[in-house]
Amino acid sequence: MLFKEIDKTTIILANCGKSGPRVRRVPTFLLRTWQRWVGLFFFVLVALIATLCLIVYQNTSRDYQARLDRANYIRSKIDVEQIQSSFMAIDSGLYQLNSFLNERGLSHFQIDENMGNLGGIPEDIDATEVASVGVFFEKELTSLLSDLKSLPLGKPYDGDITSKFGWRRSPFNRRIGENHTGIDFKGAIGDTICTTASGLVKESNYNSGYGHFIVVQHSDTLQTLYAHLSRRLVKVGDKVDTGQPIGLLGNTGRSKGAHLHYEVIHNCRKINPEPFLLQ
Ligand SMILES: [Zn+2]
């Protein structure tokens, strides 16, 4: 095979140290067209950089557009008026529950009547406030549920009520009036008495007035008392659940006949247990 001899130019590299001048043979066409090759190199480099920048830009803007579309979609789905209406309904429900507690001498919320709501809903709610209002209601509902769980509801014993809360003629001297601090349920000695809410036994003791009695602490502000028992089944510090037997009905202490004397105590004040009985 025949190859055409490439025309080469000899270059002498002088001043190469101890080894002396060096001789290189370079194709002559390269020497004639080197500016073109350098230009081509820079053109390719610039093109590569530009392509890279374009890819990065496209990916970034596509991601941004996707997030923007998602945000617009979410905004279009949020019906602020409906949310406001739902929040007002929740607010109203909480308000009614609070009224229920108020009727029983208890109060969960400090409601400002001028506000018209619990104070968690801005008058002109916008989409950005939905989350914070949701958190407000979540907190209030959790707190309310905790209060309701510790509310002594129902009867501690299913017997006839023989004496109500308030002023009455003394059973020991009918000519004298006295303040009856609880409700009396008539029953048979030995019948089971159950606690009306979960809590901790604060007192399990005997005195001349109450006889054998038990006090259960349901929350920071609520206690119930069960008196004139023939026997106590729990001791101080015991944890009790709603409906758990805590004692047996009796006739101990200042009592005329077998009965249970039941008290509800709120903030150290004895209140009428009747609204809690849910008859
Ligand atoms: Zn009584």
Key phrases:
single chain; 26% strand; 15 strands; 279 residues; 8-stranded antiparallel sheet; binds zinc ion; 3 domains; alpha+beta; Glucose Permease (Domain IIA); 3-stranded antiparallel sheet
Topology at a glance:
Layout: E1 8-13, E2 22-27, H1 28-77, H2 80-103, H3 130-149, E3 161-163, E4 166-169, E5 177-180, E6 183-186, E7 192-194, E8 199-207, E9 211-217, E10 222-229, E11 231-232, E12 239-240, E13 245-248, E14 259-266, E15 269-271
Antiparallel strand pairs: 1-2, 3-6, 4-5, 6-14, 7-13, 8-9, 8-12, 9-10, 10-14, 11-13, 14-15
Briefly characterize the structure.
The protein has 279 residues and is an alpha+beta fold. The protein has helices at 28-77, 80-103, 130-149, and strands spanning 8-13, 22-27, 161-163, 166-169, 177-180, 183-186, 192-194, 199-207, 211-217, 222-229, 231-232, 239-240, 245-248, 259-266, 269-271. The chain folds into three domains: 8-77; 80-149, no CATH class; 161-276, Glucose Permease (Domain IIA), CATH 2.70.70.10.
Structure write-up:
The chain is of the alpha+beta class. The protein folds into 3 domains: 8-77; 80-149, no CATH class; 161-276, Distorted Sandwich (Glucose Permease (Domain IIA)), CATH 2.70.70. It is built from 3 helices and 15 strands. It has helices spanning 28-77, 80-103, 130-149, and strands at residues 8-13, 22-27, 161-163, 166-169, 177-180, 183-186, 192-194, 199-207, 211-217, 222-229, 231-232, 239-240, 245-248, 259-266, 269-271. Strands 3, 6, 8, 9, 10, 12, 14 and 15 form an 8-stranded antiparallel sheet that branches. The protein has a 3-stranded antiparallel sheet with strand order 7-13-11, with no helix packed on it. A hairpin with a 4-residue loop joins strand 9 and strand 10 (222-229). Helix 2 packs parallel to helix 3. The longest helix has 50 residues, at 28-77. The mean pLDDT is 85. The site of zinc ion has 5 residues, from loops.
